[in-house]
Amino acid sequence: MGIADRPGAYGVVAVATLAYTCLMFVWFSLPAYLSTIIAELDLSSTQAGVVAGAVPLTYIPIALFSGLAVDRIGPGRSLAVGVVLYGVAQVGRSFADGFPSLLALTLLLGVGATAVTFGLPKLVSTLFPPSRTGLPSSIYLVGASAGTALVFGVGRPVLGPWLGGWRPLFLWSGLVAIGYGIGWYVLARRLGIDERAAAKDADETDRDEDAAPIASIRRDLRLILTHRELQLVVVVGTMYLLASHGIQGWLPTILESRGVSPGIAGQTTSLFVGAYAVGIFAVPALADRYEARPTALIGCGAVFCAGTVGVVLADGLGPALLASIVVAGLGVGGLSPLVRAIPPALEGIGARLTGTAVGFIFAVGEIGGFLGPVLIGTSHDLTGSYVLGLGLIATAGVVVVTAGATLRRLAD
């Protein structure tokens, strides 16, 4: 069964996208039920923020090494191991009896998540040339948004009550993920995905650079860590993750604090996720068409800053709040594919080092991903309000605008 044809390649990406869909359903099942879990496990807002930010926290120490591993092992096996790992962690979370066990299992979930985050860009760079990675990247990112939307829009208000609460929902979603991971491994072996990735990597490596593995790793890390344009993408990625995890991790609880019922709060958060998905598709398509990726970064930063400020200022669940949530989602969503699609097109990176480059972005960037939920939770403990935390999230948009402008200047 071959995948050399373009429709076949898109088909493989579509199947692999389910790894991200399952991941985001599993990941954000905790924020969807955060207020319930806080009450049942007697968590403080700071503890809740730490747990909500625990998956991003995992990326900080291991993301770069996970990216290196994906580049050398291949996307097929990496995705399979990652999915099974986060599935096992989700099953374990269904039996958590307090903050320590819930945190430990969420950190384990994060380890599996890294393989998916870096395995999918590696898969796309294996199947498509650098100039054509925008659309397939959007496909798997929309799949990720679908998982998030499903857990907020269906998992929390429908499946959870039907199954009997958050623990059965965690249990069954973990088992489904494990089943999918095993199925993906079988398919990847049949298609020879890892062999195809290894062959493409060999084509991109100069024949006189057949150095020992340790020397090869050192050379690749030196290139990645000193690449000026990639460093700016890292800044953008950090602010994107700060905003994305901060807003999605706390928006349902923020809405509930304003008197919105849990079901409606979850469905309203799905509105953010839906706008996020629109941004994922629309922004990279426009950016690639007009060859204006840095300009797209600037626009997305300004848009999500304005939307977050609107969420702070809006009073009640009315048109102003809903519009602000949509605007914020569009801006944050547009950044998501750009931070993944830009590295393969950078000089010296290409498909061979895509996993390592994206790993570098997330190793640093997930500091923001961890701090987003923690800043909102801690500021609420200190002030009794979510205004300060959301204000810090909005400031991230200004940083994105500045980094995008610098990238555009370097490109010119």
Strand content: under 5%
What fraction, in percent, of the residue positions are helical?
over 70%
Describe the main β-sheet briefly: none
Q: State the low-pLDDT regions, or none.
A: none
Tally of DSSP helical segments: 17
Sketch the topology as an H/E string, one letter per element: HHHHHHHHHHHHHHHHH
Query: What's the name of the CATH homologous superfamily?
Result: MFS general substrate transporter like domains
Number of strands: 0
- Shape, please? globular
Instruction: State the domain count.
Output: 1
Query: Which class in CATH terms?
Result: Mainly Alpha
Determine the mean pLDDT. 88
Distance between the termini: 44 Å
Query: For the CA atoms, what is the radius of gyration?
Result: 20 Å
Q: CATH topology, which one?
A: Growth Hormone, Chain: A
Keywords: Membrane, Transmembrane, Transmembrane helix
Protein name: Cyanate permease
Transmembrane segments: 7-28, 48-70, 79-96, 102-120, 140-163, 169-187, 232-251, 263-283, 295-314, 320-339, 351-374, 386-407
InterPro entries: MFS, MFS_Cyanate_Porter, MFS_dom, MFS_trans_sf
Structure, described:
The chain is an all-alpha fold. The chain has a single domain, classed as Growth Hormone, Chain: A (Up-down Bundle), CATH 1.20.1250. The chain is 85% helix and 0% strand. It contains 17 helices and no strands. It has helices at 6-27, 29-32, 34-41, 45-52, 54-73, 75-93, 99-127, 134-163, 166-191, 193-204, 213-225, 228-257, 262-289, 293-313, 319-345, 354-383, 387-411. α7 (99-127) crosses α10 (193-204). Keywords: Membrane, Transmembrane, Transmembrane helix.
